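Show me a record, fold above all:
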Amino acid sequence: MFKWRNVFQWLSVTFIALALSGCGYNTLQTTDEDIKATWAEVLNQYQRRADLVPNLVNVVKGYAAHEKDVFISVTEARARVGAIQATPELINDEAAFQKFIAAQGELTGAISRLLLVAENYPQLKADGLFRDLQAQLEGTENRITVARNRYIAAVKLYNVTVRSFPSNLTAMLFGYKTKPTFTVENEKAIAVPPKVDFGAPAPAPAAPAGGS
């Protein structure tokens, strides 16, 4: 009798495992972990960009100290990004996620305006530190795009599993819910990285009238 009970328990466990696998449980767990990993990389690259901003601002200040509005805009945008608790749990809160993405979009715009300032300062464009920072920024923006696309793909696969039958029943049973992703509006704000190509020299400022 004891042996039969063990056999019955083993068969029960096997049946449950197969049932869960067939209902998408394993897929839910795998894709959920993929989302966590890809989101962590998104956060890592956004942080890398934020870390570049102070040095970039300081270099531009050295040549264009009077561009105060631009500096204030960049500094405030970076502060708003830093004020948001960008934890892994952020992807479980639609409102918090959209707030974070909106803040990143504002920082993207502010950085773009800062870089445009350099167009009027040939010496700034030729500064070695500035050129190094712009190269780092360009590389970071490219990595942000890659990381963001991987996150979008991971969320798409996961959300399809959560919504599809019969895996949706498994999702409801174990509390799996859809995750937020980048919307069309988000992409309009952040999909285009700041322009950092200063290959063509800017025209020299016109000489003042009546000068010697």
Remarks:
- The longest helix spans residues 25-61.
